[in-house]
C-alpha cells in the first residue's frame, strides 16, 4: 500500500500547515526529493537551506543535522515526523514481540516531554489516529497500528553513556537541542553525559530505512552535531546538513519578524546565534571579547571621577563577607559611553570576614557623594542592606534574579562593551576588574538561554568587581542624559525668545491650576457631604 510522503501527510492527516521553507525541508530531508527536483521559489529556498547542494543520496538522508533558528518550528516538525514514522514505517522485518520505538532525547526531561505533548496533540487531531493510542504517560505514547503492530514514541533525558536508550529497536531517533548535550567549558562535569555516547548507543539499533535527526540552535563548542554539520554542510557526504535563520524558515510571519527585531536590538550577539545560526568558533566559552575589554581601559580621565549632574549615575554592589569580596562600582553615562568613575573592594581575610555594617555605611556615603538615589545589589543580604540604606535615604533597586536574570544583565552589558561604549579606569582595581571579566564564561542552557559562571582563581576572587560593574552598567542602559540648559546674553533675540517661552509655560501652568480648582468646586457643589471636611465641618 502506498504511503503518503511526509510533506503531504502533515497538512492532510495532521492538519499541520507548513511554511514554504518547512515544506522544502520536508520534501528533501524527510522525503525522496533532491533540490534539483524542485522549481521556482522552492528551488531557491533549497539552495539556501542545503548550502548549494543539488543532489542528495538516499544514504546521506539516514542522518539529518538541522541548525535552525529559535522559533523556526523545528521541534514541531520533528514531533510531526515522529508521529509519521510511528504510524507508517515498514516494520515487517522485525520479529514478533519486538516493539519498535521512535525515541526523542533531549538534554533534560522537560524538553523531551514537550515533544511527547506535541505528538499527543497531533495524534488527537484526527479521530482515526486518536483511536490508535492504547496507553500513554507524560513520557510515552503506545500506539496499536492498523497492521496489528505495537509501536512506541518515548522521550528520554540524556544519560551517561546513553544507557536509557540502549537495547531498543529504533524506527527514528530525534536528538533535540543536540548541541547542548555536553560542554567543553573549563571545570565542567558534563563530560559524563555527552552526545557522542548517546548517538553511538542508538545508531546500531536503527532499523532499515530508519532515520536519525539531530536538531539544535548552534553553540560554539566541540559537539558531535557540530562536527557532523561542518563535514556535510554544502556537501551531504554522510548526512544532510541544513542551516537557516528563523525568518527564512518562517517566511513573512510578522510575529517572527518582530521577535527577530526585538532580540537583535536587545542582544545582537545572542540573536546572531539563536536566530541567524551564526557562531564564532572560539574555544572555552569566554563571554566577553578580550579585545573589547582591552579597548575599554582608559587612562585619559581623572580617577576617581567627579560627579557631573547632567549625566545619569548608577551604583552596583556585589555583597560577600566571608569567602567572597564585597564590591562597589559607580558608573556614569555621558550619552555615548558608560564610564566607570569609582571602584571599591572589601576583601575578607582568613578568620576575619568583612563587616556588613562597614560595607553598607560606605555604600551610602559613596551614593551621597555622587548624588545617586539608589544602589543595585544582588539577591543576597538584600533585606540587611535595604534597611541600612533606607536609614540613610538611599533606595535599593531590584535587579533581575536567578540565572536567567544574571544572563540578562551580562548580555546587555556585553552588547555595549562590544560596541566600545564602556570605559574602565586604568588603575589597580580597574585592571583587576578587566582580569576578572576575562575569566567569565557562558554555558548553554535550555530555551535559547545561557548561564554565566566566573571560575575562582587564586588571588582573583570570584568575579566580584565584574558583578558590581555589570549591575551599574545594566541600570544605566535604561537612562538618558539631561539636555543642556542654554544661557543667552540678556536682551538678545535668543534671550527674549527663551524669556517669552518660559512666561507662556508659567501662564499655562496657572491656567491649568485654575481649571482644576473650578472642576473641584463643581464636584463639591454636586456632593457637599463628600467635601465637608474642607470647611471645618460646617457647610
Question: Which properties best describe this structure?
Answer:
Rossmann fold, 539 residues, Nucleotidyltransferase, domain 5, seven-stranded mixed β-sheet, alpha/beta
Number of strands: 17
Give the tally of structural domains: 3
Structure annotation, total helices: 18
Helix-residue proportion: 25-40%
Write out the strand line-up for the largest beta sheet, numbering strands in chain order.
3-4-5-2-6-7-1-8
> What is the second-level CATH architecture of the largest domain?
3-Layer(aba) Sandwich
Mean pLDDT: 82
Indicate the proportion of strand residues.
Answer: 15-25%
Low-confidence parts, pLDDT < 50 over ≥5 residues?
183-192, 530-539
**Would you identify the CATH H-level superfamily of the largest domain?**
P-loop containing nucleotide triphosphate hydrolases
Task: Give the gist of this structure.
With 539 residues, the protein is of the alpha/beta class. It is built from 18 helices and 17 strands.
Give an overview of the whole structure.
This protein is α/β, with parallel strands linked by helices and 539 residues long. It folds into three domains: 59-253, Rossmann fold, CATH 3.40.50.300; 290-476, Nucleotidyltransferase, domain 5 (2-Layer Sandwich); 493-535. The protein is 38% helix and 18% strand. The protein is built from 18 helices and 17 strands. It has helices spanning 6-12, 20-28, 40-49, 74-88, 109-123, 127-130, 195-202, 224-232, 246-250, 254-266, 268-274, 290-296, 356-369, 382-391, 402-418, 428-437, 464-476, 493-526, and strands at 63-68, 100-106, 133-136, 140-144, 150-157, 169-176, 206-216, 240-244, 297-298, 313-318, 326-333, 338-346, 374-377, 395-397, 422-425, 441-444, 450-453. Strands 3-4-5-2-6-7-1-8 form an eight-stranded mixed β-sheet, with helices on both faces. Strands 9-15-12-11-10-13-14 form a seven-stranded mixed β-sheet, sandwiched between helices. Strands 16-17 form a two-stranded antiparallel sheet. Helix 10 (254-266) packs across helix 11. It starts with 5 loop residues before the first helix and ends in a 13-residue tail after the last helix. Residues 183-192 and 530-539 have low confidence and may be disordered.
Amino acid at each position: 500500500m502506498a504511503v503518503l510522503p511526509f510533506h503531504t501527510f502533515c497538512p492532510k492527516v495532521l492538519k499541520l500547515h507548513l511554511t514554504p521553507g518547512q515544506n522544502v525541508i520536508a520534501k528533501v530531508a524527510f522525503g525522496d526529493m533532491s533540490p534539483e527536483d524542485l522549481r521556482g521559489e522552492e528551488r531557491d529556498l533549497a539552495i539556501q537551506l542545503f548550502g548549494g547542494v543539488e543532489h542528495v543520496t538516499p544514504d546521506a538522508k539516514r542522518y539529518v543535522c538541522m541548525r535552525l533558528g529559535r522559533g523556526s518550528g523545528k521541534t514541531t516538525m520533528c514531533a510531526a515526523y515522529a508521529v509519521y514514522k510511528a504510524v507508517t514505517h515498514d516494520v515487517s522485518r522485525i520479529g514478533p514481540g519486538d516493539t519498535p520505538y521512535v525515541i526523542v532525547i533531549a538534554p533534560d526531561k522537560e524538553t523531551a516531554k514537550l515533544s511527547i505533548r506535541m505528538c499527543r496533540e497531533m495524534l488527537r487531531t484526527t479521530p482515526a489516529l486518536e483511536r490508535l493510542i492504547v496507553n500513554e504517560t507524560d513520557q510515552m505514547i503506545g500506539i496499536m497500528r492498523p497492521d496489528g503492530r505495537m509501536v512506541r514514541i518515548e522521550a528520554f533525558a540524556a544519560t551517561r553513556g546513553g544507557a536509557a536508550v540502549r537495547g531498543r529497536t529504533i524506527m527514528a531517533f530525534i536528538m533535540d537541542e543536540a548541541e547542548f548535550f555536553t560542554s567543553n567549558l573549563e571545570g565542567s562535569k558534563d563530560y559524563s553525559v555527552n552526545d557522542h555516547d548517546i548517538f553511538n548507543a542508538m545508531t546500531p539499533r536503527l532499523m532499515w530505512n530508519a532515520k536519525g535527526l539531530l536538531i539544535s540552535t548552534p553553540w560554539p563548542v566541540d559537539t558531535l552535531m557540530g562536527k557532523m554539520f561542518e563535514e556535510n554542510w554544502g556537501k551531504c557526504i554522510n548526512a544532510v546538513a541544513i542551516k537557516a535563520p528563523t525568518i527564512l524558515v518562517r517566511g513573512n510571519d510578522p510575529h517572527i519578524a518582530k521577535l527577530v527585531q526585538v532580540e537583535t536590538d536587545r542582544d545582537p550577539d545572542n540573536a546572531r546565534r539563536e536566530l541567524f545560526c551564526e557562531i564564532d568558533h572560539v574555544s572555552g566559552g569566554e563571554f566577553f571579547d578580550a579585545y573589547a575589554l582591552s579597548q575599554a581601559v582608559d587612562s585619559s580621565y581623572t580617577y576617581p571621577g567627579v560627579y557631573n549632574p547632567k549625566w545619569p549615575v548608577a551604583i552596583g554592589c556585589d555583597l560577600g563577607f566571608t569567602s567572597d569580596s564585597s564590591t562597589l562600582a559607580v558608573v556614569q553615562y555621558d550619552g555615548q559611553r558608560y564610564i566607570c568613575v569609582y571602584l571599591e573592594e572589601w576583601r575578607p581575610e582568613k578568620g576575619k570576614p568583612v563587616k556588613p555594617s562597614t560595607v553598607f555605611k560606605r555604600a551610602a556615603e559613596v551614593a551621597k557623594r555622587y548624588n545617586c538615589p539608589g544602589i543595585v545589589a544582588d539577591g543576597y543580604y538584600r533585606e540587611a542592606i535595604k534597611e541600612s540604606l533606607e536609614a540613610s535615604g538611599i533606595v535599593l533597586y531590584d535587579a533581575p534574579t536567578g540565572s536567567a536574570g544574571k544572563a540578562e544583565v551580562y548580555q546587555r552589558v556585553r552588547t555595549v562593551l562590544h560596541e566600545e561604549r564602556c570605559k574602565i579606569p586604568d588603575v589597580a582595581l580597574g585592571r583587576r576588574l578587566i582580569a576578572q571579566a576575562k575569566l567569565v564564561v557562558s554555558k548553554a542552557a535550555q530555551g535559547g538561554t545561557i548561564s554565566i559562571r566566573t571560575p575562582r582563581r587564586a588571588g582573583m576572587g570570584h568575579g566580584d568587581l565584574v558583578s558590581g560593574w555589570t549591575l551599574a552598567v545594566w541600570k544605566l542602559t535604561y537612562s538618558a542624559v539631561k539636555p543642556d540648559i542654554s544661557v543667552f546674553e540678556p536682551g538678545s533675540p535668543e534671550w527674549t525668545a527663551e524669556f517669552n517661552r518660559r512666561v507662556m509655560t508659567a501662564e499655562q501652568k496657572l491656567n491649568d491650576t485654575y481649571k482644576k480648582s473650578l472642576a473641584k468646586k463643581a464636584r463639591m457643589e454636586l456632593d457637599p457631604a463628600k467635601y465637608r471636611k474642607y470647611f471645618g465641618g460646617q457647610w
